[in-house]
Each structure stands twice: as C-alpha cells, then as structure tokens.
Design goal:
- The chain is of the alpha+beta class and about 130 residues long.
- It has 2 domains: about 60 residues, Ribosomal Protein S8, Chain: A, domain 1; about 55 residues, Dna Ligase, domain 1, CATH 3.30.1490.10.
- The two termini are about 25 Å apart.
- Helix content is about 25%, strand content about 30%.
- The radius of gyration is 15 Å and the shape is globular.
C-alpha cells in the first residue's frame, strides 16, 4: 500500500469539502512532506500525536484556507509511484503551474522543494506536486 498516495488523497478530499483538520497514519516521509507544505503555506499546522492506548502515532494536518474561503491546496498529484519511480536531475526539474505550485523531491539530503534542490545542486526522486 502506498501510504504517501493515501495521505495525499486524504488531503485533497478534505480540502474539497472544507474540512479544517484531518488525521493520517504516521510516516516519517509523510511528516517531512507535510512540514514542507506548512513551510510553503499549503497547511497551517502539522502535529504528531499518539492514538489512545494502542500506541500508534498519527499526524494531525490543519488545512489552510484563503480569506475568501477557497482552499490553499487546489490539487495534489503523486508523481513517483511504487511501480514507476520518477527521478530528475537538477537540469530536468520543472516548475509546477509556471512557478505557482510546488514539487517535492527526495534527495540525498532529505525531502525538499525542487527550488531548494536546484539551489543545492541536487537531483532526486520526484514525490508529488501540489498547486
């Protein structure tokens, strides 16, 4: 099961029905992607918590909305999948929606935006795109 794709689908669906907070299963990669979304202004808050006595961690993602009520996240797309990994070098990384969106890349130095990866002269696996 692709936990990243599952979390992205939950975020997309929740933003379409104007939910304020969603809970997703914890994963270090998902936490890093969510924190990047928070830094870039797509989420308002990311919190890790334990679920009751069961001991499993979860992530609470607080969705962000514009003053007019439209969601900050219009759409999400999983790029690299378990059946087909998509890699890009610094030169091959493209902007999302002519620079209005964000592309998330997994590099040797961790998860970052393609803008940051270009600055650091890194390539890696393209995880997802958000706009």
């Amino acid at each position: 099961m692709d936990t990243i794709a599952n979390a992205l689908s939950q975020i997309k669906n929740a933003s379409r029905v104007n939910k304020s907070v969603i809970e997703v299963n914890y994963s270090g990669v998902i936490e890093n992607v969510a924190n990047l979304f928070k830094t870039e202004g797509y989420l308002s808050d990311v919190r890790v918590f334990k679920e009751g006595n069961r001991g499993g961690k979860k992530l609470a993602l607080h969705l962000k909305y514009n003053p007019d009520g439209t969601p900050a996240i219009t759409d999400l797309r999983r790029v690299s999948k378990s059946g087909q990994r998509i890699y890009a070098t610094k030169k091959n990384m493209k902007d999302v929606m002519n620079g209005l969106g964000l592309s998330v890349v997994s590099t040797s130095l961790g998860i970052m935006s393609t803008k940051e990866a270009r600055k650091r002269d890194l390539g890696g696996e393209i995880i997802c795109e958000v706009w």
